[in-house]
Amino acid sequence: MSAHDDNNDTPRMPSISGRIESLEDLSLRTGDQRLRQVHELYELERVPSVRMRMSERAWADTFDVMGVPREFVEDQYTIVIRDKHLGHEVIFNPLRSRRTSPIIGPDPAELIEQERALAGCRWCDSAGWMEKGMWADEFGEVWSEDGRFVARANWARMAPVSGMVIGDEKSHNLLRLSRGDFLSMFRLAERYVRKALEVRPRARFFIVFLNGGPKSAGSVAHAHLQIVGKEGGRHFGYAENILTSCPADYWERVQSAHQNVALDLTDGRCVAWVNLAPVKEKDVTVVAPTLQDGALMIYTLLQTLIGRGTSNYSLAVILSPEYVTASVDKRFSKWPPVLMRWVDRGDSRSKHSDVGAMELFASTVVATDPFVVAGWLRESLNS
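The structure assignment produced for this chain is given below.
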């Protein structure tokens, strides 16, 4: 069996001598010293599966689903990618993207609109939850200059500092949010952090996160950011895991490794890369000098990904302590000021997408090649 891209083109043999264009190409270059930066961080292995044989009837059904030559199905292999420091393991099989699954329901952006029309939205109502003074932290609410967005307390606290950013009815649908409104939300999130520090000056560890799409682990469809912050000597779990498991210059090494195989992107201010060991189908990391710079790049990339079928995603923005307080923290001395991790969790209308037991308790299984995703995004930044 040979690799193919995410557009269901005919599977092809890898190009070993030329530019690396797929995980298949990369898996066949494990001894290439020019890829030393990659091999220092990641293990790649091309593993043949147990041979399979099908009856004629089974093959007829399988071809309807896969649409590839029979030998590609009966003699499969997987590519296993493992982050040596974090232990995160990914199993890639390009055939998995060939599976056809019924797309249930309307376009995800339209679904959000239909749900609002059916059930209404208290966050869209200026006389509802957008009313000033509904609830607030002790340092008050933070409103945008045009009065369309507010950053205020999250009434279901998730951390000692716990807030959210919401906007008016024009900003309800995250999949249709304008660039200006998207940036306004992040601008207000930063102002909220600064206000929180007035009453909690020892709070150095902050994360801003965003869940987007109809299936987004949230009870409210209205577009909103969450902000969490805490004091003490430890950041939140993901950051702490990297600090304890990886070398101090881990992010510099990861960036260099992705540049080594041309999975990196830049808009002149920020640097991003499509992760070689994704946690789900499409997985992008952005390092930025400021929260606003990072939000601008994420928005640009997100428009391309929505055009390629993204409808259900999560974004986490980890702020370094030095970015938040301008104080020296040796543990984070080599961290970027703003680190963003964006993950597409799968088409919300497809039965076999999103996260399942395999991802939660074993290894991540993906069908989308990072090299294909990088090609899409590079076009968007160069256009």
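Interim note for the steering committee: Residues 108-382 form a domain with the HIT family, subunit A fold (CATH 3.30.428.10). The chain has a mean pLDDT of 84.
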